[in-house]
Amino acid sequence: MLSLAPWVDLAARTLDTLVPSRMTAIPSSLPAWLSALTRPFWIAAALLLGLGASLRAWLCFHDDGIYWPDEIFQSLEPAHRLVFGYGLIPWEFRDGARNWTFPGLVATILRLVTFVTGNQPLRYLVAIRLVFVLVGLATAFGIYRLAKSYDARPVGAALAAVLFALSSPAIYFSPRALSETASALPLVFGLALVLRRNPPRPTLAVGTSLLGLSVLLRIQNAFFCAGVLGVLLARRRWRDAALAAVTLAGWAFLYGLIDRLTWGDWFHAAIAYLRANVIENKGAQWGVSEWSYYFRVFWTSSPIGAVLVAVPALFAVRKAPGLVSIIVLNLIALSQVEHKEYRFLLTSFPALFAIAGIGVSELIGRVERLGGQAWWVAAPMASAAVVPALGFHSLTFGDLGAYEHEKPQVSAYDDSGPINRLLLVAHDQNDICGLMMAAIHPAWAGGATYLHRNVPMYWRGDGDVSSHYNYVVTGGRAPGQVIASEGPFTLVRTRATCAADPGFRWWLP
C-alpha cells in the first residue's frame, strides 16, 4: 500500500520554510508549520490578504466600466473573435502590431468558461475578471518569493505581499484584462528564480523561461530581460548569463514563430509595433506627459502607499543593487516615451514591492540591534496599508493619471459601466439585427464582448445607416420604444427589422 507519510513530511517541511522561526515559541504538540500559521503576525497577514482579495472580488461584480480601451480591444475583443468568429477589430489587429499570445490565452480562458457557464456574456465576463484577480493574488505570493530570494526576513517579505494586496491602484487594475497585470505574474516569479543566490541550472532555465513568457504577453518586458542579463554579468556569473541568453533567444524565436503563423512574417508584430510607436510616434495622439509622470502619479494614486513603499526601499539599495538597477532602468525607459499611462507601471509593481520588503527586513534588523522588536515596524506599516485599501473606491481618473485634461475629477470606477450594462440588455433582445452606438465612441464601450450578438455595430460617425439597425444606445432622446435606461443613457428599439448591410466591416472606428 502506498504510504503518504513521506509526502506529508515534505509538505510540512516546505511550509515551515515559508514562516518565521523567531516570532513565538512553538508548542511541541503542534507541527512547526501549523504553529507558525497561528502566530499573531501571520493571522493578521492572512486577514489583510483576504481583505485585498475581497475588494478585488467585489469589483468583479460591481464594475463594468473601462479604464482604457486596451482592456477590451487588445484582449477580450480579439479573444471573443477567436472563439465566436466576430468582434470589433482595432488598428493594432488590422496592421498586425500585436502578438497573438495574450489574446490567445484570454480566448482559451473564454472557451473554458463558456463551456462551463454557457454563452451568457455577464457570466463569462465575471468569470474572466475573477481569473485575473487570481493572477493578481498569485503575483502577491511572487512578491514574497522575490523578496525571499534576496534573503529578506519572512516578516518583511510577507509585509511586501500585504502592501501589494492592499494597494488601491493594484486593487483597481486587478480584474481588468490587461497584458500588464497578466505578464506581471510570470515576470515576478522569473525574477525570483533567476536572481536568487546561486540557483541550480534547471531553476535558472525555468526562471528565464518565465521571463521569456512575460515578453510574449507584453513585449515591453524585454527591458527586464536585458536588465537580468546585465545583473548576471555584473555578478560575473558568465555561464549563468550564457544559459539565460540562450533560453531567452529560444523564447524570442517562439515570438517570431507565432508572428509567422498568425501574421505571415517573422517578428511582424514587434516590427509593426516599434514602427508605429517609436518611428511614427502614434501613441502621442493619445496624449503626451512629462518625464516625471510615473513618479507623480505613483504619489497621487496612493500617497500613503507610496510612502510605505518608497521609504523602506531606501534601505534595500545596498542589499539588492541588481534588482533596484533593473527597476530604475525600466523607469528610465518608460519615461523616455512621450505617451505615458499609469498601467505601464504595473509590471514594475512586483519588483517595487519586493524591494520594499527587502528594505523592511533591513529596517527590522536595525531596530532589533537597538533592542526593539520586529512588530514595532511590521504592525504600524500593516495598519497604515489598510487606509488606502478601504478608500479604494475614491480614486479618480486624475489620481490615476488618465484623462487629466478631459475629466480628472470623474470617478475611475464604472466609467462607461451604464452603457456596457445596456449592451448586456441588448443581448437579451431576440429581435436585434443591428445596433447604433450614439452615446459614445465604441472604443470606450464593451464591443461584441458585451453585446455578444453577431449583428452590425455602428456609431454616429458612420453616416446614414439608420435602415441597418433597430436598436440604439443614446445619451439623449430617440424615437422608438424605450427598453432600458441607466443614468443619462437609454436603450431604444427603433424599428422591427433591419436592411442587410453587405458593406459592413467589423473595424473599430
Describe this structure in words.
Residues 1-30 have low confidence and may be disordered. This protein has helices at residues 5-16, 32-37, 40-62, 70-84, 91-95, 101-117, 121-149, 154-165, 168-173, 179-194, 201-217, 222-234, 238-262, 268-279, 293-301, 303-314, 321-336, 349-369, 375-390, 417-427, 447-451; strands at 435-437, 457-459, 471-474, 481-486, 489-493. By secondary structure, the chain is mainly alpha-helical. The chain folds into two domains: 44-65 and 96-394, no CATH class; 417-493. It contains 21 helices and five strands. It is 59% helix and 4% strand. A hairpin with a 2-residue loop joins strand 4 (481-486) and strand 5.
Topology overview:
Layout: H1 5-16, H2 32-37, H3 40-62, H4 70-84, H5 91-95, H6 101-117, H7 121-149, H8 154-165, H9 168-173, H10 179-194, H11 201-217, H12 222-234, H13 238-262, H14 268-279, H15 293-301, H16 303-314, H17 321-336, H18 349-369, H19 375-390, H20 417-427, E1 435-437, H21 447-451, E2 457-459, E3 471-474, E4 481-486, E5 489-493
Parallel strand pairs: 1-2, 1-3
Antiparallel strand pairs: 3-5, 4-5
Task: Give structural attributes.
single chain; 509 residues; mainly alpha; 2 domains; five-stranded mixed beta sheet; 21 helices; 4% strand; globular; disordered N terminus
The DSSP helix count reads 21
Oligomer: single chain
Cα end-to-end separation: 66 Å
Q: How can the largest sheet be summarized?
A: 5 strands, mixed
Number of strands: 5
Write down the secondary-structure element order: HHHHHHHHHHHHHHHHHHHHEHEEEE
Counting helices, strands and paired strands, the structural category is mainly alpha
Strand content: under 5%
Total domains, how many? 2
Outline type: globular
Question: Order of strands side by side in the largest beta sheet?
Answer: 2-1-3-5-4
Give the integer mean of the pLDDT values: 90
What's the alpha carbon Rg, rounded to whole Å?
A: 25 Å
Stretches with pLDDT under 50, minimum 5 residues: 1-30
Helical percent range?
55-70%
